[in-house]
Amino acid sequence: MEEVYRVTRRVARSKASVLLQGETGTGKELIANAIHQLSDRGGGAFVKVNCGALSESLLESELFGHVRGAFTGAVNNRTGRFEAAHGGTIFLDEINSTSLHLQVKLLRVLQEREFERVGDTQTLQVDTRVIAASNRDLMDEVGSELFREDLYYRLNVVPVNLPPLRERREDISELVVHFLEAYNEVNDRYVVHIQAEAMEALQSYDWPGNVRELQNYIERAVVLAEGDELTCDLLPDLVMGRETRTHRLPVADLETLTQYVVQCGLADAGPNEDSLYKKVVNRVERELIAQVMLSCNNVQTKAAAKLGINRNTLYKKLKDYGLG
Question: How far is the C-alpha of 123 from the C-alpha of 117, rounded, in Å?
Fold first, then answer.
């Protein structure tokens, strides 16, 4: 983290694009905001866009704006986020979720500093610094042809990799104290002591949700505490080791799966690329995606979030399984 802070301070004084990579909850937005505040653009706008939260058409309008009549529902002209960030910084979170079509427009903004609103022919110039973030390795996305290589290199001028919390456990005690102070003030509480066993549990837990997960648990503890001490009973069972995130399939489910394999005629597969394992995985994955798409009313953005994959990956799987 000291290296992250050092790079943050140095890159802030430049005009270079920055690519933040790290797991969800590692603090990418905080680093992006710090870069903005420490730069000569600190007095300008810091505009945040979560690229994974919107469909392709909505995201394009959100980023670049639109003119009246550009599409159904466009009753007025709208300024996009790039225009709103003129003279400041735009933070593109989950950049890996953007479509290849939209990536072309992003590349043009980065290289030429110009774009057109959706439905318009007038070219607009913009002076906006771009900081992008991804919770996936973008080089892997490039290899899978889900992310443009030229855009990757244009964004990756200064890469900053944020380590997960489990790799910097020495920070946990200071983070706990920081969050206690913050949530004591917000909730008018006085939880200032930490039970030794509770701190040991916090430092032993793997934190799949990283700093954000720790923050949530400390807020919960402050709200529920009856005294001035953070005790073990205030922490979730997951943290205390009384519950696990992974569960074995019950025997009944295994028997059902076996019957399913036989009924589908998959049990005769040989030891090749169409092996039993691959056929079963593909069949189960196809059914899972179909059910999730149905439950999300075929909204790919929602379905991808529910499945824990990005929208481009879901789009490819829908085509592969003939569900698109």
Answer: 8
